[in-house]
Specification:
In the C-terminal section; belongs to the RimK family. The chain has 466 residues and is α+β, with helices and mostly antiparallel strands. 22% of the residues lie in helices and 34% in strands. A hairpin with a 4-residue loop joins strand 2 and strand 3.
């Protein structure tokens, strides 16, 4: 609190609400009103009964709905407030700091939609301390501010951390990765909800697209962390597209997840971006079996189902004869598969690079169990932290970028020709790499989310020369 001397206020003043990341608001000072009011919309309570909070959005500039500042604060009360037109409204009440004329002090503010009003804030008499004198015939007695503080360069310096509402799309609430994401988010003061993807359903229309869950419309989320299982990829991506339609920030997009899950599509994406990978071939006709193997090279060969995961549906054929038998078996099951060169020098080892926000934040070497050529931890493989080369780091980040993934597990093989991408995982597990690297990967992911979920800055309009 900073109250030094008598503060003279006119009926119209500029002020700031720094706790809410609102450095400049034009307010009407009205001693006839008892309570102060702040323009807010999308008002939504969250948290526990013991510690209730409220999230709300503000258009700080009258007539400009493109700039939205999302705020959060503890709820201190709910009150019936009678407006100037005589209508009663039950409003949330918060406490926040007001800054005006070089002085600051805490005030109580009610939240209500003042979108149709000329002033985004009404300063009532309860907010005026003994040192304040109101001159009703004057205006702007204190230094005037301006809305330039909401431009990109300045907004970053005034935006404070706020409670976010985050959804984790997962069917496994007790899974290590899901549970870690929830605990990490809540430790930062965010509200993190686990949403079972298959229990979501959607209203698809042009004017008001919505997502429903267990009979109720889902609230607006600041961010979504998709952890969609391979068995529900198609439906999970449909739900995620609906979040994208609503403008929600999704750590990984539906397009990237869908492409990464289809092994053929994934390798085509890698090829398009000139990213090294084992030689791969695909065909539908049984007549092309021999030519298919010839394209890849000599045995041993890898035969892989297009939707394989955690090493399942991946077979090592030691000879061409064995490869033909595996291919015939897969075709008999009407399964889609591809044939791939076996990188012998990898010797049952691969490198998992965890990429977040375009940077490799951790890497581990996975080694297969015994004679198994697959190094997946789910198949008994072991993991240890490892140092990666600049070339490996570059390949991993390029692969994640090719799929437009905010978080990705990029699996590399160390071949005589350099690193080759084996797979790009759009829902990488956190347990193995956290234990191997001794890093809090979940915290790094939330750092990225908090950085990305920021208000859109005000775009400066250049004045045309006269």
């Amino acid at each position: 609190m900073n109250i030094d001397s008598t503060l003279k206020l006119g009926w119209e003043e500029w002020l700031g609400l720094p706790d809410l990341s609102l450095p400049a608001i034009k307010a009407k000072v009205d001693t006839g009103a008892k309570t102060s009011a702040l323009h807010a919309f999308d008002i939504e309570a969250f948290g526990s009964a013991a510690k209730p909070n409220v999230r709300f959005a503000v258009h700080p500039i009258p007539g400009n709905t493109s700039l939205i500042i999302t705020c959060s604060a503890p709820i201190i009360d709910r009150r019936d407030v009678i407006s100037s037109n005589g209508e009663s409204e039950l409003r949330y009440v918060i406490e926040t700091t007001i800054a005006v004329g070089g002085q600051s002090w805490p005030i109580e503010v009610t939240l209500t939609d003042r979108g149709s009003m000329a002033y985004r804030m009404l300063l009532g008499r309860q907010a005026l301390r003994e040192n304040a004198v109101v001159a009703p015939a004057e205006q702007f007695c204190q230094p005037e501010l301006n809305y330039d503080v909401y431009t990109a360069s300045k907004l970053r310096t005034v935006t404070k951390a706020r409670a976010l509402r985050i959804a984790v799309l997962s069917r496994e609430q007790t899974n290590y990765s899901t549970a870690k994401l929830v605990s990490e988010g809540e430790s930062r003061g965010h509200v993190v909800e686990v949403i079972d993807t298959t229990r979501c359903y959607m209203a698809i229309n042009a004017k008001a697209p919505e997502i429903y869950y267990d009979g109720k419309r889902l609230p607006r989320f600041d961010a979504v962390i998709p952890r969609i299982g391979a068995s529900i990829t198609t439906y999970g991506c449909s739900v995620l597209r609906q979040f994208e339609t609503l403008g929600t920030y999704c750590v990984n997009g539906s397009e990237g997840i869908a492409a990464s899950r289809d092994k053929l599509h994934a390798h085509q994406v890698l090829a398009r971006h000139r990213i090294g990978m084992p030689t791969t071939a695909f065909a539908a006709s049984p007549k092309d079996t021999k030519n298919l193997m010839d394209l890849v090279g000599t045995a041993p060969l890898i035969v892989k189902l297009l939707e394989s995961t955690q090493g399942k549906g991946v077979v090592l054929a030691e000879t061409k004869k064995a490869a033909e038998s595996v291919i015939d078996a897969f075709r008999g099951l009407k399964a889609n598969f591809l044939v791939q060169d076996f990188v012998k020098e990898a010797a049952g080892e691969d490198i998992r690079c965890l990429v977040i926000g375009g940077k490799v934040v951790a890497a581990m070497k996975r080694t297969s169990d015994g004679d198994d050529f697959r190094s997946n931890l789910h198949r008994g493989g072991t993991a240890a932290v490892t140092r990666i080369s600049k070339e490996e780091r570059d390949v991993a980040t390029r692969a994640a970028k090719a799929f437009k993934l905010g978080v990705a597990g990029v699996d590399l093989l160390r071949s005589s020709e350099g690193p080759k991408v084996l797979e790009v995982n759009s829902s990488p597990g956190l347990e193995g790499i956290e234990k191997a690297s001794h890093k809090n990967i979940a915290a790094m992911l939330f750092d990225q989310i908090e950085m990305r979920v920021r208000p859109e800055p005000l775009k400066k309009v250049r004045k045309k020369p006269k």
